[in-house]
Amino acid sequence: xxxxxxxxxxxxxxxxxxxxxxxxxxxxxxxxxxxxxxxxxxxxxxxxxxxxxxxxxxxxxxxxxxxxxxxxxxxxxxxxxxxxxxxxxxxxxxxxxx
Length: 98
Known about the structure:
Layout: H1 3-7, H2 13-19, E1 22-27, E2 30-34, H3 42-53, E3 58-64, E4 69-74, H4 76-79, H5 83-95
Antiparallel strand pairs: 1-2, 2-4, 3-4
């Protein structure tokens, strides 16, 4: 186990992104995230949308400028074929707001 694993530091841009938002809900195949930084910030919403659309394993991404919500839909089996995304999903599962 390396130092990065022990410290549980982000290992990728996507991992860092997920750690910068609030995980509101999670069920396999559906994640809702929130970020106050997105509220009323059309440019930032577009940037997030474009970045997440670049993640080929995601089926659908919706960003709401009014609420700061990000809805991500995916097929779990497809997402879990990518080691980086497995790590991100594990983080989401353990940090979902209850």
